[in-house]
Amino acid sequence: MTPVVGPGDDSATISVVALASKNALTWNDWDDGCSVFNRATGETHFFDLWTSYLLRLIDSEPTTVESLARRMAQELDQQLDAALRARVFKTVQNFDSMALVELCPGG
Amino acid sequence: MSGRLIDEVEIGELKRLLRAGITISAPPFQVRVQSDNSVLGESLKRLYGACRIDGDAQAADFVIRVGATSAIRRFVRRDVIALIDTPPPFTRLPYEMAPLMFEQALNWCVATRTFTHLVMHAAVVARDGKALIIPGESGQGKSTLCAALVSRGWRHLSDEFAMIDPETLEITAHPRPISLKNESLEAVTAWGAAPESVMEGTPKGTVGYLPPSMGAIESAGQRAMPAAILFPGYTVDSDPSITKMEKGRAFIILTACSVNYRELGEEGSKAMTRLVSRTPIYRTTYPDTASSVGLVESLGLWD
After folding, report:
1. What is the distance in angstroms between the Cα of A8 and the nearest Cα belonging to chain B?
2. What would you measure as the largest C-alpha separation in chain A, in angstroms?
3. Measured between beta carbons, which residues in chain B are less than 8 angstroms from residue A25?
């Protein structure tokens, strides 16, 4: 796992988040959340709507943690603050530990 | 169907045959069993009487040998263990518990070596070709509810495994003895059922079995479509209730109930998704068997 700098550090904005394996995810939306089958690992994950939306953003294109936080704030009408940045950052780290995404230095 | 019914084989002959090895048709599997354990011979006659033997040994899906752990254990502090073709994942049991050892071994074979179906830890009964899947952990009332519905005329497809065709979602029957433990034995005895091969002091407490009927074995070739999934919830002193489950949560619980979901990969994921999408899923709470049967019938899916 590539070390990532946390929110509040400027270098967080240049940490690129991308899917670990392109086109590897199969999505299933349920009323109470979303299940994701990862063909690359054979694992199935279940996420609430907020978390699955974040993963969809990463699925659509590689991005940065800061950009993710900004888009989550805009599209879900949340305030872009330290708490939201920390939540996004923590969730991205969890995705990384599940081998769903890769974190790499960008710039 | 060829071969003799186990019920029609005289016990002395059955034990002799068992020493050399017999192939039991336990649909959809052919199970080769070899044992010099006298208790197992008697148990097979009681629990598998509706099944046939004399099948082709070469065609067996599983080969299970049930015997003592060492030569001396055939005479002193006699014990029993099942041997398959890999190191056994079982703890040895006293000689008299050979029926439990055999059931454990056969369950292990089905759970670890079936790749043609999505296999879920669940009981399955059906009426008019429409199946009710009853998943659940031990102690939730899965087998007791299965036995209660079978006693009321439902078709017994399986007590232990729902074997789901990943393409069609049809369920292949695997009718075996219904395994009952502790309070469940008392519950079924109360409505007149007579458990066989009852063993006290097993690692699971008192264990006994209700053998599958001749009808269950003879109709095992007929598949059934899932009509509902119901998580049983036996709870002492509770009020009977039944509620629809949220599908996302049910999906995750069902993947955990499956013994080979991960091994099937994407095929398993697709099958589970279609199963959950198409099938109503319920959670129940009930204080006794009569209530649980009432809840199932209240669904109105089998009118």
Report:
1. 35
2. 38
3. none
pLDDT at B88: 63
Q: CA-CA distance, B141 to B233, in Å (whole number)?
A: 7
Nearest to B162 by CA among B111, B216, B233, B214: B111
The yes/no answer on whether domain B118-298 falls in CATH 3.20.20 is: no
Radius of gyration of chain A (CA): 13
- Would you give the DSSP letter of residue B191? T
**Residue ranges of chain B with pLDDT lower than 70?**
1, 86-88
Identify whether the C-beta of residue B20 lies closer than 8 Å to the C-beta of residue B43.
Answer: no
pLDDT tens for B164-196 read 999 999 999 999 999 999 999 999 999 899 999
pLDDT, tens digit (0-9, with 9 covering 90-100), for B5-51: 999 999 999 999 999 999 999 999 999 999 999 999 999 999 999 99
Residue B113 contacts A where some CB pair is shorter than 8 Å: no
State whether residue B261 sits within 8 Å of chain A by CB.
yes
Contact: A30, B248; criterion CB under 8 Å:
yes
Which positions in chain B touch A31 (Cβ < 8 Å)?
A: 246-248
CA–CA separation, B27 vs B34, rounded Å?
19
Look at residues B167, B145, B139 and name the one whose alpha carbon lies nearest to residue B228: B145
Q: Contact B138/B145 with Cβ under 8 angstroms?
A: no
B163 neighbors B171 (Cβ within 8 angstroms) = yes
Backbone φ and ψ of A56, nearest 5°? -65, -35
Q: Which ranges in chain B are annotated with CATH 3.40.50?
A: 118-298
